[in-house]
Amino acid sequence: MDLFEVLGLLGVLALWAALGCVPWFIGLVATRAQRAPWRSLPVVVAAAAGAGALTPALGLKDAFGFGLSLLVALTAGVLVTIASTRYATD
């Protein structure tokens, strides 16, 4: 892999992670909690990036697969945010 391929891969991973942070931020503002959402931030980022990376790994490597991976990363962020705010205690 050359440098531009690596930078492109890092950019896509950052995009998946950022999409996972959107529902986390909405949950942070909506719950007005003190500490619980901050503890779940690394889990949300890892889940969104992992779910987004899993979609092309399953064989969907075209434009449809990329769009689907963005939707999957956003969905993973939503699910982990709901789970973390539901079961977390301040």
What does this entry show, briefly?
The protein has one domain.
Describe this structure in words.
Helices cover 84% and strands 0% of the residues. The chain has one domain. Helix 1 packs antiparallel against helix 2, helix 1 runs parallel beside helix 3 and helix 2 packs antiparallel against helix 3. The radius of gyration is 14 Å and the shape is elongated. By secondary structure, it is mostly helical. It has 3 helices and no strands. The N and C termini lie far apart (45 Å).
Structural features:
single chain; 90 residues; 3 helices; mainly alpha
Blueprint of the fold:
Layout: H1 3-31, H2 36-57, H3 63-87
Structure summary, number of beta strands: 0
Query: Taking all residues together, what is the mean pLDDT?
Result: 87
Helical fraction: over 70%
**Poorly predicted regions:** none
Q: Count up the helices.
A: 3
Rounded radius of gyration (Å)? 14 Å
